[in-house]
Amino acid sequence: MKRVQLLVIALLSLSSNAQWNSAARDLEKIYDHPFRDEVMTTVWGNIVKTRFAERSKEKIKTESRTIYADLRLAQDMPYHYSYSKKWKSDEAKPVFVFIPGIFSPIDGYQAKDMVRRFVNLGYRVVSFSNPLGKQYLEADPKHELLDLEIQAKIYQKAIYNILDILKIRKQWNGHAIIGGVSYGALASSIIFTIDQRLSRKARNQSYLNQLVIFGPPMNLIRSAQRLDMYIEQTKTYKYFDSLPRAIQSYFHLRNMKDRNDATYETHMMAREALTQESFVKGLAGAVSTYSRVNGLNVVPKKDYKAWKKKLRFIPTFQDMSSKAYKKMSTTKMAILSRWILESKSLIQGKPNKKIMILAAADDVINDGVDPKLRGLPETMELPFGGHYGFQCLEWFDRLITAQFKLD
Fold this sequence. Notes:
Layout: H1 2-16, H2 22-29, H3 38-47, E1 60-67, E2 77-84, E3 93-99, H4 109-120, E4 124-127, H5 134-138, H6 148-168, E5 172-181, H7 183-201, E6 210-214, H8 220-233, H9 243-254, H10 264-294, H11 304-309, H12 313-320, H13 322-330, H14 336-346, E7 354-360, E8 379-382, H15 394-404
Helix pairs in contact: 2-15, 3-10, 6-7, 7-14, 8-10, 9-10, 12-13
């Protein structure tokens, strides 16, 4: 009996060992980054020009569309649909669904870079706004700002409807990958888990074959707390306090080559860019849009700058999404490993189902990689790279190509 149990455990282990393939793991061994400071790595990696291993072979067509998603959205869900101009209208291709990082729009740099990568590899690409991005919030969600599970179900419904349409048009071959960055990674993980649950309940109900996530929050609440900590460190607001100064600081950071260029001043400049120019500005925009759409009058008409300067993630989440915040605080809803481990158990024994996690040990939004995920065949842990600060590297493009290139 004991031998049978050991054999079953071994077989289950083997079924998940090929998450990141051998070519991707070889690239993991040669990973490097010009910087080591977690904030500098994050900022520089997200503002410099993205490097691709090869020039794009495809001329890409992107169409703006909307789709019915759920009654909890007052309007249809906006999305972009991208494909190669040279493909036939009825040519069946795999589909890559992408959700960018917190506050990111459908047409931001994260989505554009992913579209270029995956269309070049032979995929049709469906890209959405982040759940806290402008397009999603303007669709007038009739739920609390941070209700993660309802958000996931709305995206899931939209994805299913899109894939059904593509299948009818003979543009989808039945293989679909969902991927996300940061908060979009957590949302993608929840969507994938819900999808795999359906495959257990009803045969052929599952639409999604693979999940790939980059720079995910290990615990969304703890990530918000860490961001508030960084904001407190830069509340003097020196390097981006005026447009000329902001432009000068931006190009100074962008033109840095490696860690030999980093001084105390540039480290402080990077911290201000990360907090005030990225997260605080994004948070203010999300609150303003949500408030306007729902008639909440949260944003003051006077002294907007003073209001924005006082913004912090945790108080904002508590005030604007109290029930959802309490649920996240008292359950494992906001913890990534809760969803990954459930999905992992649901896809055991299914070789066409995969989970891939790419995370940096020094990500500014995490206290390191969750021990429950570290060392799993699904996880690739980089020693440094900050929060998605590796995305600009040619290495990252080579990794995507190695893992997702079609046979």
